[in-house]
Fold:
Amino acid sequence: MRRADRLFQIIQILRRSSRPITASQIAEELETSRRSVYRDIADLIGQRVPIQGEAGLGYVLDRDYDMPPLMLTPDELEAAVLGAQWVAGKGDAVLAGAARDLIAKITTVVPERLRPFISNPTVGAPLSRASLPDGLDIAKARASIRKGHKIRIRYRNEQGDESERVVWPTMIGYAETVRLLAAWCELRQDFRHFRTDRIGAAEFLDERIGCRPAELRSRWKRHMQAQGIQLP
Structure:
């Protein structure tokens, strides 16, 4: 968990309790050390978050404290709407639902004067053609990428030849009508891009890949850049 996220979660933990919460309780919930919690609370107090208490006794948050509303510019809001519209049209069912939920959440937390930029934006994603059906569960594939787990696939190439591969997934790419699974292929000992509509079967393994997911992603980016493809 990023430190900024942890600071936010500490505020949320204190906000929902009317009784003092000890550093041990916070550390257990956030799966971190008490020392980190003490340091984070000291930083929050230094940022004038009204937390009262001390080590060993527990901490409480002033009931009148409220976090400032999410402040976004009209351009930022419309960028979020445009991106969510695109994902809702191109993403798998789970991502599409998450995109709609994201806009609903943003709508509830931005000031009233900014909500028209969400409900009536000046931008819009074009209607997309239906994507070809995927041969693997995209949501599970994304989970494997996050966890750094391998996937065994049965793949059919453009000529119709089938092969079985064990791959280290690193990215799901979304094209106009197809999706691509970018992965290190153990069979070819190189990075490959597999069209998900050509995957006949997929088994999500518990076996971990041979490096950290972030390292695999960096290696894939260098591979793409070596081919003259610039990535964000």
